[in-house]
Amino acid sequence: MAMMDKKDKYETLCAQIKSLVEGEKNIIGVLSNVSSIMHETFPESYFWVGFYLVSGEELILGPFQGSVACYRIKRGRGVCGKAWEENSTLIVDDVEAFPDHIACSSLSRSEIVVPIHRSNGDAYGVIDIDSTELSAFDATDRQYIEKIANILSKELQF
């Protein structure tokens, strides 16, 4: 039953995000509102949620909700840099066990990072979500956060 509740929350969240970003081209504003609504929807599991955007050979901090974060992440470094390098979603059940993890906050225990794609398939940036709980993210989170990334990609036409 808990999984159904989570799916229902994600279904509602996706619909809200779609209507929130439809027709809006202010990328910083959109990403700010999306990080806010995601954080508000899952306060029990989303300790930190935000965006890192590709700039040359590094990711730079974009809009987010949560504690202070790292400004720059090199390609291939940490969970965000590795997800960008591989251009695929990464779920890390225990960040302490992840090689080269970048600890922006010692409270972070698990993480999911989902690339946001340009129309040509290259990554525009990533959605980064941290939890204070171990193994906080699963296939349901992956499915819906990838759906959110697709909504952003289509609506903002990176």
Please explain how this structure is put together:
- The chain has 158 residues and is an alpha+beta fold.
- The chain is built from 4 helices and 6 strands.
- It has a 6-stranded antiparallel sheet, sandwiched between helices.
- Strand 1 and strand 2 (58-65) form a beta hairpin.
How would you summarize the topology of this molecule?
Blueprint: H1 2-21, H2 27-41, E1 48-55, E2 58-65, E3 72-74, H3 78-86, E4 90-92, E5 110-117, E6 123-131, H4 139-156
Antiparallel strand pairs: 1-2, 1-6, 2-3, 4-5, 5-6
Helix and strand run: HHEEEHEEEH
Mean pLDDT: 92
- Alpha carbon gap, first and last residue: 37 Å
Structure class: alpha+beta
Keywords:
alpha+beta; 6-stranded antiparallel beta sheet; 158 residues; 25% strand; single chain; 6 strands
Explain briefly what this protein structure is.
With 158 residues, this protein is an alpha+beta fold.
